[in-house]
Amino acid sequence: MTTIGILALQGAVREHAKAFERAGAEVVLVKKVEQLESIDGLVLPGGESTTMRRLIDKYGFMEPLKAFAAQKKPMFGTCAGLILLASDLVGYSEPHLGVMDIKVERNSFGRQRESFEAALSIKDVGEDFIGVFIRAPHIVEVGQDVEVLAMHGDRIVAAQQGSFLGCSFHPELTDDYRLAQHFVQMVETSSKETV
């Protein structure tokens, strides 16, 4: 069975765990660096990116997460997790992990009270996926190796680059597990390629 880790420092951890269990994966809540060795793919959940970064630094996760990415192990960032993956952030001189060739703007859809839901067409996932946007970022630019998976109006809200997947919205806050299944399939494909 494919083992998906959820970085369990802050954010929508339980909701992601439920989504991936429904998608047929074994789930590990990653609270210690050593646990990265026992998982096939890692989810960086939605939450608050500044708080998440502070906890990543506090518990010594930064270099191990970069090493995990360097091994081309799949990573999926949702909302705050997307911000962590991005190589370029609008208004910031330094990225966090910086492993995905995208430029991201934080809180670009407004504040908490401006949260909304929207029907999205997500390539390889579905035409009718409901995206839940809460203080959501969006992808401003993508590198040439990045595939855009979904748009909301003129904004990129989901993209994939090799073993990295990122989205602006919160797929874990719905009962639609197709995006989780898509990531599980990415992980399974990656595992076969590295055998």
From TrEMBL:
<comment type="subunit">
    <text>In the presence of PdxS, forms a dodecamer of heterodimers. Only shows activity in the heterodimer.</text>
</comment>
<dbReference type="GO" id="GO:0004359">
    <property type="term" value="F:glutaminase activity"/>
</dbReference>
<feature type="active site" description="Charge relay system">
    <location>
        <position position="172"/>
    </location>
</feature>
<feature type="active site" description="Charge relay system">
    <location>
        <position position="170"/>
    </location>
</feature>
<feature type="binding site">
    <location>
        <begin position="47"/>
        <end position="49"/>
    </location>
    <ligand>
        <name>L-glutamine</name>
    </ligand>
</feature>
<comment type="pathway">
    <text>Cofactor biosynthesis; pyridoxal 5'-phosphate biosynthesis.</text>
</comment>
<comment type="function">
    <text>Catalyzes the hydrolysis of glutamine to glutamate and ammonia as part of the biosynthesis of pyridoxal 5'-phosphate. The resulting ammonia molecule is channeled to the active site of PdxS.</text>
</comment>
<keyword id="KW-0315">Glutamine amidotransferase</keyword>
<dbReference type="GO" id="GO:0006543">
    <property type="term" value="P:L-glutamine catabolic process"/>
</dbReference>
<dbReference type="InterPro" id="IPR002161">
    <property type="entry name" value="PdxT/SNO"/>
</dbReference>
<keyword id="KW-0456">Lyase</keyword>
<dbReference type="GO" id="GO:0008614">
    <property type="term" value="P:pyridoxine metabolic process"/>
</dbReference>
<dbReference type="Pfam" id="PF01174">
    <property type="entry name" value="SNO"/>
</dbReference>
<feature type="binding site">
    <location>
        <position position="106"/>
    </location>
    <ligand>
        <name>L-glutamine</name>
    </ligand>
</feature>
<protein>
    <recommendedName>
        <fullName>Pyridoxal 5'-phosphate synthase subunit PdxT</fullName>
        <ecNumber>4.3.3.6</ecNumber>
        <ecNumber>3.5.1.2</ecNumber>
    </recommendedName>
</protein>
<dbReference type="GO" id="GO:1903600">
    <property type="term" value="C:glutaminase complex"/>
</dbReference>
<dbReference type="GO" id="GO:0042823">
    <property type="term" value="P:pyridoxal phosphate biosynthetic process"/>
</dbReference>
<comment type="similarity">
    <text>Belongs to the glutaminase PdxT/SNO family.</text>
</comment>
<feature type="binding site">
    <location>
        <begin position="134"/>
        <end position="135"/>
    </location>
    <ligand>
        <name>L-glutamine</name>
    </ligand>
</feature>
<dbReference type="InterPro" id="IPR029062">
    <property type="entry name" value="Class_I_gatase-like"/>
</dbReference>
<dbReference type="GO" id="GO:0036381">
    <property type="term" value="F:pyridoxal 5'-phosphate synthase (glutamine hydrolysing) activity"/>
</dbReference>
<keyword id="KW-0378">Hydrolase</keyword>
<dbReference type="InterPro" id="IPR021196">
    <property type="entry name" value="PdxT/SNO_CS"/>
</dbReference>
<dbReference type="GO" id="GO:0005829">
    <property type="term" value="C:cytosol"/>
</dbReference>
<feature type="active site" description="Nucleophile">
    <location>
        <position position="79"/>
    </location>
</feature>
<keyword id="KW-0663">Pyridoxal phosphate</keyword>
